[in-house]
Amino acid sequence: MTHFLSLRSVSKIFAQGGHEVRAVEDVSIDVEEGECLAIVGESGSGKSTIANMILGIYPPSIGTISYRGELLPARRTLAHRRAIQLVQQNPLSSLNPQRSVGASLRLPLDVHGLGERARRRDRVGQLLEEVGLPADYARRSPGSLSGGQRQRVAIARALACESELVVLDEPTSALDVLVQARVLKLLDGLRRKRGLTYVFITHDLSVVRNIADRVAVFERGRLVELNQTGKIFSDPDHDYTRRLIGAVPVVTAEEVRLRDRLMKKENASA
């Protein structure tokens, strides 16, 4: 069976102070077309290293990564860079403050030669409207926008070249709760409308509860649990997953009962 994205026995080893540090060790994951796979874990768990290997920022030390059944080369082609895009935690990292919003959105259209040159300005307006912003925001600078608006522009930029796989690296962690919920709703709607596939990197399980189809839990570079989101939240298998869920803010009586049940299970296994 050919998977949309496949990691096979992937490890990443860095040299640090004369020693080897295994940031990721022997990870195998398949991602199916159209799904949202969340990769969660605390700082240092290896989740961002996984994202960087998928994006080709650096290659695996061991193992392979395949996309649509073909091995991804260490040096990604223009076609690969078009198909696999990134939305970062800080949108200012991907938006040049010296460029207008419209210029930033038009750049990937020019680089990849998408659409008629004369119609690319119209396409920029369409992209802005697709992420819930007025088309005339194209004339504004990134610095004049709110954090949520900038993140919407960053999402539009990732989608400008008709990407298929979007790696979302903590895309809402810098936003307040209300704006975070709106951006998550936007991302979910875009995935369903466009048939996108997401790899969603986060330290916060609660963020992906209503958007992810499956959750991969990482601890110290190792994949410790991979399951459907509902199963992860209702009956997690690993103690580390239970601790992560126990740290999620509780707001309903049902979640109080779930937290208490998980804590009792963890204490019993200690």
UniProtKB/TrEMBL annotation:
GO terms for molecular function: ATP binding; ATP hydrolysis activity. Residues 5-245 form the ABC transporter domain. SUPFAM superfamilies: P-loop containing nucleoside triphosphate hydrolases. This is Peptide ABC transporter ATP-binding protein. PANTHER family: D,D-DIPEPTIDE TRANSPORT ATP-BINDING PROTEIN DDPF-RELATED (PTHR43776:SF7), TRANSPORT ATP-BINDING PROTEIN (PTHR43776). Keywords: ATP-binding, Nucleotide-binding, Transport. Belongs to the ABC transporter superfamily. It holds the Pfam family ABC_tran. GO terms for biological process: transmembrane transport. InterPro entries: AAA+_ATPase (IPR003593), ABC_transp_ATP-bind (IPR050319), ABC_transporter-like_ATP-bd (IPR003439), ABC_transporter-like_CS (IPR017871), P-loop_NTPase (IPR027417).
